[in-house]
Amino acid sequence: MSESDQPLTDGAPPTISLSDVLVDEELLSASRDAIASGWWSMGPRVAAFEQEFAAHCGATHAFVVANGTAAIHLALLAAGIGPGDEVVVPSLTFVAAANMICAVGATPVFCDIVGPDDLNLDLEDVAAALTPRTRAVLPVHYGGYPCEMGGLSALCEDAKLVLIEDAAHAPGAVIDGRRLGSIGAVGCFSFFSNKNLPVGEGGMVVTSDDDLAQNVRLARSHGMTTLTWDRHRGHASGYDVVLNGFNYRLDEQRAAIGSVQLRRLDANNALRGHLVDRYRTALASVDGLVVPFAGTARGVVPAYHLMEVLLPEGSDRDRVRADMLAAGVQTSVHYPPIHTFAAFTSYADRRALPRTDAVAPRLLTLPLYPHMSDDQVDRVVAVLADALAGAG
Ligand SMILES: *Cc1c(COP(=O)(O)O)cnc(C)c1O
To answer: Is the pLDDT higher at 7 or at 264?
Structure first.
């Protein structure tokens, strides 16, 4: 490093970013091979990634799509959700699910979380939110920690609702031997670059229901009955268009990266788990802090997507975050609740969400990625403790 490359803040430690991707020769050569093949979309690499992902999940079908939002869109459409329908969804999640519920003409009905120790959807509040118009429940496995799937599955079965898992945070997570995303009627994954299986852009729809699968397959590519790849291989010559679909396909280059990342997923999730353990031990000595999802139930392997803490009540979060950034640590907030966004404040009959409202101003996401070091974890905790002492 030459002198002119030195960080601007004299003597400051290097920035620890919220997430990071590791680039290595295997990833580079996988994408190079895909480019060199000269077949750039929906070919053998997409097919291989789908087969590998379905097998990993223990599901019959997996469809790679352009992104996780497209996955949710296709899942809702395949389930027949449309105008006049209500879909139960947490407010404390990324806005994609609620946006897609609106995109198909349905109404999102926001439900509360369990509480500060469990940021997932509360089963009792879901039951209380059901109306004759409810058609589906769309939980998110917050931070890679499973929702109460037994209870949600039973509730959906009783009320004849479609259970759609937003598993964007949870690739690889396990509950009683089953992978998250394969428990509901359909599961949706994201391969955005800060997720556990980073590809850049990309997503996957997973289902073991043949009818839902056929619908997703068609809607992903214009409602056309055959793909260019099938015609190229001489498997088909013409096509019909049997529904009004989209172009939500993915290219071969990204599918090739996806296959490499999938092989690394379980090991990378385990590395995340180790770092989370270290965080939890170190954070226990910081006064007033709550670390959600303490204690993993038997049979549960979380995906450890987010390292979330709740700051002491009354903390000035903006100031804590600014102080931490000045000390070289990037943080984030997952999430500002959806019901507080301008596009969603129009729901006049909105349900009360007291537990979501109570934790929202206290949420803080700390850096976490598989190749983070123990020393970096310790550094983040020290910087957080300093920031809290300064902001107290
Ligand atoms: C990232 C994310 C999505 C959307 O995925 P994209 O690939 O970015 O479209 C949906 N839901 C949740 C909970 C997410 O974190």
So the answer is: 264
pTM of the model: 0.95
What is the residue type of 72? Answer: I
CB 188 within 8 A of CB 167: yes
Q: Is 73 in the pocket of ligand 1 (CB under 6 A)?
A: no
Ligand 1 midpoint to CA 37 (Å): 30
Q: What's the whole-number mean pLDDT along residues 110-139?
A: 98
Contact between 126 and 147 (Cβ < 8 Å): no
User: Is 282 in a helix, a strand, or coil?
Assistant: helix
Q: Which helix (H) or strand (E) holds 121?
A: strand 118-121
Residue 305 has pLDDT above 90, yes or no: yes
Contact 196, 19 (CB under 8 A): no
Question: Cis bond leading into 335, ω under 30°?
Answer: yes
pLDDT at 350 over 90: no
Distance 152 CA to ligand 1 centre (A): 21
User: Residues 6 or more apart from 186 whose CB is under 8 A from it?
Assistant: 75, 78, 79, 162, 164, 165, 205, 206, 207, 209, 212, 216
pLDDT band at 8 (very low <50, low <70, confident <90, very high): very low
Task: Give the type of residue at 335.
Answer: Y
